[in-house]
Amino acid sequence: MTRSRSEAWLGGVAAGIADHLGWPTWLVRLCFVGLAFANFLTIGVYAVLWILMPEPSPVEQPPGLQAATNQGMRQSTRPKNVSFGRVSAVVMVGFGLIMLARMLGMGPANAFFWPIMLAALGVGLVWLQADDEPAVSKSAAEAPAGSEQTRRPIVSVGGRKWVEAVRVLGGMTLIGGAVALLAASQGGVGQLPLVAMVSALTVAGVAVVAAPWILRYRRRMAAAYEEKLIADTRADMAAHLHDSVLQTLALIQRQADDPKQVATLARRQERELRSWLYADQAGPSTLKAALTEAGGEVEDERGVPVEVVCVGDIELTEGLRALVQAAREAMTNAAKHSGAPFIDVYAEVEPTGEGELVQVFVRDRGKGFDPADVADDRMGVRSSIVGRMERHGGSAKIRSAPGEGTEIRLEMKA
C-alpha cells in the first residue's frame, strides 16, 4: 500500500488507502473527516500513515529512455493539478461540519480545539512542502555532479520559490500561533513571553541534537540525486546514439557501394552531432513546425513520403519536444520496416478544462507486426517511443498486427 501522488490533495493517504481497498476516494476522505469530529485521534492516525506509507516507486527506466537534444528535455513527472474549486468545496464543507460538531458538543474543549486545529494546519503545510518534488531544471541537469546546482535545498530557487517559502513560513506561523493560543488559554497573556522563550530553547536543543542525523540524511539525498542526474545523462546519450548515429551507420552500411552518398550521410551526421553537443541551432518552436521538420528528415533519409497534417498548433515545451522525438522514431521505424509506400502523420491539439491535449497518430499500411514479439533489447519501440512518453507524463499506444499495418498513438497534456 502506497500513497498516491496523482490524486493527492494533502499527503495522498486517503487516495492510497482507497486504491488499495478498491473504495471510492471520496468515501475514504469523508471517513477521515467524519471521525475527526468525535476526537482528534484521526488526525494523529493520518499523520502516522503519512510518515509510514511509502510513495509509489518511480517508473522503471530502461537504458536509453530519452534522446534529449541537450536542451533540457528531461523533467520530473509531476502529478496532475487538483481543481482549486474542488479543494475549496471540500474545505468549506469540512469547516461547516466542524462547526456543526462544535454546536453539538462533540470534540475536545474550546481551550484545546482551536490550538489543535491551527497546529494541524501548520503541520499539513510543512509536510505538503516536504512532499512536493520540483522538476529538474535545465541548469541543474547540465551541472556537474557535486555542484551547488545539483544539491536540492528545502526551498528551491526556481520559479516556485515564493510558493514554497509561503508554505514553510505559514506552517511555522500557524504552529507558533497554536502554542501561543494554548498558553494564553491556560495561563493568561502574561505567560506568553515565558512560553515563547521556553519553546525557542526547546526547538534549539532539538535542532542541535538532530543536526548530525539531518546533515547525514541531506548528504545521502544529495548523493542519490547526483547519481540520478548521471544516470539520466547516460540514458540521454545512449538514446541519442540510437536515434541518430546508429541509424546513420545502418544507412551507410546499406549504401557502402555509393561513396558520394556515404560522404553526404557522414557530413550530415557530423552537423547533427555538433548541433547536439554545442546547441548551435535553435530548432522549430511550434509542434506543427517540429513534426513537419521531423517528417521531412525521415523522408530524406529513407526515401519514403511522409505526409504530416496538423489541426491546431501549440508552442513547444520540454514534454512536447519529447513527443516529437517519439513521433520521429515511429516514422523512422515505419519507413524502415513496414514496406508501406507512404506514411501518414496526423496531429491534433484539443483544448480541455485543464490545459490542452496533444495527440499524434503515425500510421502506415505496411506489413505490420505483433507488439508482443518485440525483443526486450530493441530500444526503438520500448525506450525511444513508449518509455520516452511515459517519462514525460504522456502515453504511447501501439496497434498493429501482421498484414494490417501499424498505428502508433502518442498523447500528452500540455
Task: Report a brief summary of the structure.
The chain is an alpha+beta fold and 414 residues long. Helix 5 (110-131) runs antiparallel to helix 7 (161-187), helix 8 (192-254) runs antiparallel to helix 9 (259-278) and helix 10 runs parallel beside helix 11. Strands 1-2-3-5-4 form a 5-stranded mixed sheet.
Structure characteristics:
2 domains, alpha+beta, Heat Shock Protein 90, five-stranded mixed sheet, 414 residues, 12 helices, single chain
Give the topology:
Elements: H1 13-21, H2 25-38, H3 41-52, H4 84-103, H5 110-131, H6 138-142, H7 161-187, H8 192-254, H9 259-278, H10 287-302, E1 306-311, H11 318-338, E2 343-352, E3 355-364, H12 379-391, E4 395-400, E5 406-413
Parallel strand pairs: 1-2
Antiparallel strand pairs: 2-3, 3-5, 4-5
Helix pairs in contact: 1-2, 2-3, 2-4, 5-7, 8-9, 10-11, 11-12
Instruction: Classify the beta-strand content into a percent band.
Output: 5-15%
Largest sheet: 5 strands, mixed
Order of helices and strands: HHHHHHHHHHEHEEHEE
The structure class reads alpha+beta
Strand order of the largest sheet: 1-2-3-5-4
Cα-atom Rg, whole angstroms?
27 Å
Number of separate helices = 12
- Helical percent range? 55-70%
Total count of strands: 5
Low-confidence stretches: 58-82, 133-159
What is the typical, i.e. mean, pLDDT? 73
* Count of individual domains: 2
What coarse outline follows from CA principal-axis ratios? elongated
How far is the first residue's CA from the last residue's CA? 30 Å
